[in-house]
Write a structure and sequence with these properties.
single chain; alpha+beta; Double Stranded RNA Binding Domain; 3-stranded antiparallel beta sheet; 1 helix; 27% strand; YegP-like_sf; DUF1508
Length: 60
């Protein structure tokens, strides 16, 4: 089973997303969005950015 994005409303009434691995562990969380559709767009942006992304090491 692949990982999944979950979109939810937080206690403050904002919408957020979290990316869960196939084992259910949260591996990434998004910022707060004003609307559910904006949170969905945030998920899509992460999917696009991650496609073909490389891993680099930094000193910071």
């Amino acid at each position: 089973m692949a990982g999944k994005f979950e979109v939810y409303e937080d206690r403050g009434g904002k919408f957020r997303f979290r990316l869960k691995a196939s084992n259910g562990q949260v591996v990434a969380v998004g910022e707060a969005y004003e609307s559910k559709s904006a949170a969905h767009k945030g998920c899509e942006a992460v999917q696009r950015a991650a496609e073909g992304a490389t891993v680099v090491e930094t000193d910071a």
